[in-house]
Amino acid sequence: MITDIKGLHHITSMAGNAQSNNDFFTKTLGLRRVKKTVNFDAPDVYHLYYGDAVGTPGSVMTYFPFPHMPRGRPGTGEVSTTGFAIPEGALGYWKNRLQDHGVTGLTEETAFGADTLKFDGPDGERFSLVEAEEDDRPGWTGNGVSQETAIRGFQSASMRLRDGGAMSELLTFMGYRALETDGPVTRFAIEAGNEANILDVETLPGKEHAAQGAGSVHHIAFAVENREKQLEVRRALLDTGYQVTPVIDRDYFWAIYFRTPGGVLFEIATNEPGFDRDEDTAHLGEALQLPSQHEHLRDRLEDSLPPIVD
């Protein structure tokens, strides 16, 4: 069994419009944009990162905004809901704030004993705000959100699968433990991990497979401390029969990827070196940062990428 995974590192999705994506995460949810860069494989497309003050692993939502991309079709084989942790007692504040910002799909419920507010993102993706006990991570207090109500980071992610059996075996191998089941949903957690340590697996045998597009999660990343631990995890996954990529330098972390039996793309990402490797912490996310292999394209990219007004 793998013991080096600490919980979530980041979640990466796709969007249709960079400006509306930026506005939603910074002006509506009050997160900090910690990096404005480009897709390594498609440099004509932004890669935007949102999180807490420094982009702590377990707090970072990232997006590839492809202009005019059609919306994805929800289904199985994907991450269906991303859950953010908020302080106890903050749900009423967030319900009013989201209503004031015109957010759709607002529903309140109690899930696994926690008060939860679910809602839609700008491309129809589903999110939830969960009142989390004893989560003392500091939130980013941007755009009028106080420390008493600010989002702390991820609380959980939910996956929707036709068959949850193979995923249950994989998560157990990765150090997660099944906690309880509520209807078709089984909750897993890493008890010695970071605060972003919960995964929910919803089994829906008859539901069609998802079609990716704007609003779809591209991949979900899990955190390890450093490259040494990452290589140990990679060896363990290879020994178990998974097809794992070589280590890839993503500038702010090193990454490996593998496709799970249910179709979800998993990444294992290092906590090092962090988002301040090329920007001062006070100015994270302000200037366009380019991977070294794309620096020669700067003039063209600065002219062609759509401007983002903060």
Give start-end ranges of low-pLDDT stretches.
Answer: none
Spell the H/E element sequence.
EHEEEEHEEEEHEEEEHEEEH
Quick one: CATH class?
Alpha Beta
Distance from first to last alpha carbon = 45 Å
CATH superfamily, called what?
Answer: 2,3-Dihydroxybiphenyl 1,2-Dioxygenase, domain 1
Relative strand content: 25-35%
How many individual domains?
A: 1
Side by side, the strands of the main sheet go 2-3-4-1-13-16-15-14
Judging by the overall fold, what is the CATH architecture? Roll
**Separate helix tally:** 5
Helix residue percentage:
10-25%
Please outline the major beta sheet: 8 strands, mixed
Query: What characteristic shape results from the CA principal axes?
Result: globular
Number of strands: 16
Radius of gyration from the CA trace? 18 Å
Overall pLDDT score: 97
Query: Given the helix and strand composition, which structural class is it?
Result: alpha+beta
Within the CATH hierarchy, at the fold level, what is the topology? 2,3-Dihydroxybiphenyl 1,2-Dioxygenase, domain 1
